[in-house]
């Protein structure tokens, strides 16, 4: 491999990129910032050791993770990615609280509308029984009047 094909790490460290370079598959020369961030936070030799300790199929994911965590640490030197995680957890908590509140409001509104529905039924029932009673009263009054008319006419 010639020097123009060096990976981002070897370019940055100004060294020859060996064919079995541990950085080469994960730090391409097209993205030099990726290695700069990781090197700044962890140090090139630590990253190399870490990658070498891992099975080959996990190295790409580990390099991505190291890069993301390094980026977070650059942006937030105190908390790093924990700062982002805390922020997102806070947002999740806020959203969950809002959801519980909204569900409670929905439950209250549902129970109110159900009660109103029952009230309507009750009022209708009361109205029916009232009108029945009025009807019965009217019927009895009519019967009484008929009877008294007949009675009076009978007696007269
Ligand atoms: Zn290299």
Automatic annotation (TrEMBL):
The keyword Acetylation does not apply. Residues 5-106 form the LOB domain. InterPro entries: LOB (IPR004883). The keyword Coiled coil applies. Keywords: Coiled coil. Residues 85-112 form a coiled coil. Signal peptide: none annotated. It holds the Pfam family LOB. Transmembrane segments: none annotated. Belongs to the LOB domain-containing protein family. This is LOB domain-containing protein.
């Amino acid at each position: 491999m010639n020097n123009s094909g060096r990976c981002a790490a070897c370019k940055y460290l100004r060294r020859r990129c060996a064919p079995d370079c541990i950085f080469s598959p994960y730090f391409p020369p097209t993205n030099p910032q990726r290695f700069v961030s990781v090197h700044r936070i962890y140090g090139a030799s630590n990253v190399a050791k870490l990658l070498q300790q891992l099975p080959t199929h996990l190295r790409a994911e580990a390099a991505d993770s190291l890069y993301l965590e390094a980026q977070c640490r650059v942006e937030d030197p105190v908390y790093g990615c924990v700062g982002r995680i805390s922020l997102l957890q806070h947002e999740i908590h806020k959203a969950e609280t809002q959801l519980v509140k909204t569900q409670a409001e929905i439950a209250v509104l549902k129970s109110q509308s159900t009660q109103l529905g029952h009230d309507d039924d009750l009022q209708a029932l009361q109205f029916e029984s009232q009108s029945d009673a009025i009807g019965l009263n009217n019927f009895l009054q009519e019967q009484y009047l008929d009877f008294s008319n007949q009675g009076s006419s009978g007696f007269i």
